[in-house]
Amino acid sequence: MAASTAMASSTLRQQVGILSSNALLGGSAVSTRRTGPCYASAIATSSPPSQPPTCSASISTRTGGEETQSTHRREGVISRRETLSAASSAAMAAAVLLAMAPALPAEAKSLEERYAEETTAVIDKIRYTLNLDKTDPGKPDAVATLKAASVDWVAKYRREKKVAGKPSFSNMYSVLNAISGHYNSFGIGYPIPAKRKDRILQEVDDTEKALAKGR
User: Fold this and answer.
1) Is this prediction's pTM over 0.85?
2) Percent of the chain having pLDDT more than 70?
3) 111-212: which CATH number, 1.20.58.810, 2.70.180.10, 2.40.50.100, 2.40.50.140?
């Protein structure tokens, strides 16, 4: 009877020990499910859950790599944004400078072209002034304008060898001398005699014909 009681007590202690072990393993399994695969590996190798060096290093490595990649991506985005911003600013600055820049002058005309245009302009003033009536209130201003244009024309072209030898220049110079001489001698109140006026206008026509031929 005593032997049976001792055996039963031993069996009971073994069952209690097994249940305690199962409970302990069960708690670890729950902890593994709660904390992840690292602690499961630690329990399987009988390592304490509080010291998972290998798994901890692996997690740290992955985290550092992800942070590095994320940093690189952010830097790439910022770099592209800065590049686009700089390009946009440069384009805007160029547009502003272009808008503020003065318009380019037209292609420079040759001496002969300027001479022909300005000579024709003086001819128009001559005809307008000579055809005004002596009582016209605009006569004094017209004569003054013609005198100023005559002085400018002579001063500009009489020393230009390319045009001073042209027949148009000789005819025009003669016309301007005749008109200036008359008004300087008799004043604007005394009209140019008809014959002299006709001769002056004829020389003006000859000047235009010479200009048309480039002479």
Assistant:
1) no
2) 50
3) 1.20.58.810
